[in-house]
Specification:
alpha+beta; about 40% helix; about 25% strand
């Protein structure tokens, strides 16, 4: 019974260790030694794209946001206090970034609002920071100014892409540690599965049994003693 339990535990540990090792190695190779994660979305419509604090200020590291417009169009991007951004957007239809998908390194989105697009977003005096250009526009969100909401849009065409880049070197270290821990657990699981069996097989191959000693007859057990020399001379 103990052998069965040991093997079951060993198998579970081996599987868990293998999964953790693979996950740690995958993250380490994806993040690189700098610990850089990049998430991208390609919006379908021309409405503004909004990133709220639950995504923008979710980590302690700075977040670099890059909006890339289609060729020949301009991109505009700005940061504001969440309540101010909500007020200026109103009920206008917009695309909201709701989270990230690590498997494919994508931003997940949802469509909010149903009203017409807000006019003159860039003319409002509530923006803490803004920029526009005919080409990629980049803003760096520093967490010491959180909470903030980011709004990005173009002059009529859909954004070609919107990218969040986050760099945290501790992520790479954590991925490597996870891979090493997983490897250790995998080895422990394998050792629980096989060593006793190997030991028993080794004992069976190397154990030598002494052959039984045959019983001797009374005649064989009688020992002839040498005769006295003087009696032998007579």
């Amino acid at each position: 019974m103990l052998t069965v339990v040991r093997r079951v535990v060993g198998a579970l540990l081996a599987l868990a260790g293998l999964a953790l090792t693979a996950l740690g190695v995958w993250f380490a190779t994806q993040l690189g030694s700098s610990g850089t994660a990049e998430f991208t979305v390609r919006p379908d419509g021309a409405e503004p794209v909004v990133i709220r604090p639950d995504v923008l200020n979710r980590v302690d590291a700075d977040v670099v946001v890059t909006a890339t417009p289609a060729a020949g169009t301009r991109a505009w991007m700005a940061l504001a206090n969440p309540s101010d951004a909500t007020a200026v957007l109103g009920d206008a239809r917009h695309t909201e970034v709701t989270g990230v998908e690590v498997q494919d390194w994508l931003l997940t989105t949802a469509t909010r609002g149903s009203g017409p697009a807000s006019e003159g977003l860039g003319t409002a005096d509530l923006w803490r920071q803004q920029d526009d250009a005919e080409g990629p526009v980049t803003l760096t969100v520093q967490q010491d100014e959180a909470p903030e909401t980011l709004v990005a849009t173009t002059d009529g065409a859909p954004l070609q892409s919107l990218t969040l880049t986050i760099t945290d070197k501790t992520w790479f270290v954590e991925a490597v540690v996870a891979a090493l821990v997983g490897l250790f657990v995998l080895v422990v699981g394998v050792l629980l599965l096989w060593p006793r069996r190997a030991s028993r097989e080794g004992d069976e191959h190397h154990l030598e049994v002494a052959p039984p000693v045959p019983a001797r007859s009374d005649a064989e057990q009688t020992v002839a003693l040498p005769r006295d020399p003087e009696e032998a001379a007579r």
